[in-house]
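Batch 3, record 17
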Amino acid sequence: MKYSGFKVLWEGLSGNKGWKPLWRNPSPKKSYDIIIVGGGGHGLATAYYLSNKFNITNIAVVEKGWLGSGNIGKNTTIIRSNYLLPQNQPFYEFSLKLWENLEQELNYNSMVSQRGVLNIFHSDSQRDAFVRRGNAMLMSGADASLLGVDELKKLVPFLDFQNSRFPIKGGLWQQRGGTVRHDAVAWGYAKKADSRGVDIIENCEVTNFLVKNGRCFGVETTKGIIKSKKIGVCVAGSSSEVMGKIGINLPIESHVLQAFVSEGLKPLIPGVITFGAGHFYVSQSNKGGLVFGGDIDGYNSYAQRGNLPVIEDVCEGGVALMPMIGRARLLRAWGGIMDMSMDGSPIIDKTEIKNLYFNGGWCYGGFKATPASGFCYAHLLATGKPHKDAKDFLFNRFEKGRLIDEKGQGNQPNLH
Amino acid sequence: MLINHPLLGLRDSSEFIYMGDAKLMNRPSWRSKNIKSKFIEYGYFRKNPAGIHKELWYHEQGDRSWLVVTRNTVTHEILKVELARNLKRKVNAK
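Prediction for the assembled complex:
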């Protein structure tokens, strides 16, 4: 089904009877060329790029729940490419470029809105760090500009500039960053992958992997055995649980990250704003709710809900940055499970078992990475070699000492 | 979450610093064989179960003791709290 202005007009005049489901609901075949385990954003993106860019169409995506029921459906929807390290920044800039063409490519409105991302700084040393980061961004081909207090007062006049503990000294601004309608990303990728013949099999949990002589040749699922030449696991949040089925230990802890939304308000916040002195970032959804979040709770969890101390901490950060939101009411809070890796960076790599591939460890930055993660994983699955922008996201970086530690915190996942 | 500290009774978990998997108490000896792979395993790899998990909590804003907490990571239910030093003494005595 192709969406267009003409189609909307035609359906409006003919009783909206021509709309069809975006993907089929097939039963699994006996075998495939590639099985993707996990029908979330990254898994569906991988299936889309494999089928549309690498011309491999005999693919199944198997998903334990319903399509897009994990973190693609419950994140804070921010896209940006404002990383520092040379192993990370080109990858995220590649991702941002893919976001920019995503809707035309998928023929699906995922509401990519490049409304800008602003990182506030509060001290001279923080300014130095942000200047360095901005330069790293420019060198990767991304955009970045440093805004002074006068410019900020025009752009975001409601901030607490005179805060005596954390006075605002300026901000690092990326105009091309912004927000995206997160569910629509999963649906758009699913629609386009399905149209090329990819089987998306929902409510189909992988219970084991079929391995013989160190080679993986399929999966056991709740809908029977499915064989495949290659298997790509893409289940961030549950990575350790899934890989644990074949005894692979990962450099990952699972943590819960909470997110929040306020009642709907009139248009108020122009882009995405992050507080430089605490854990708080905010944007405003198209429905008017303030969408905000902060840090992970900090202990291993698969509970998909957090606890009160972090809710208080995030709200305190918000009120310190923009006192006006103290009167907005918190409407909802929820939690998602993150793969927190040992250096804060992801893994897209082969495993020690032949034909079994792994994509995970996204920490709490997986959403913005969705297109590039899918593309680079598809590249690895199709060619057997890492994509040039993801060539450092390997398992062996821990033993080689080539950690990609954006925050410089060492092997303590809850600090990344 | 409330942690039932063996000496101080119920304390709020926000008084503690979380250090993860209690296997970190069992640092490999620098003289053991395969020392490189043992330290890579010790430093970077974790079991990370969905279910019962033994983990280290440090009572930073309290008596600064290290605790080994047995907790269910799916429900956040705390099943057992022990002083890490008592556990370590038991291991060393063997």
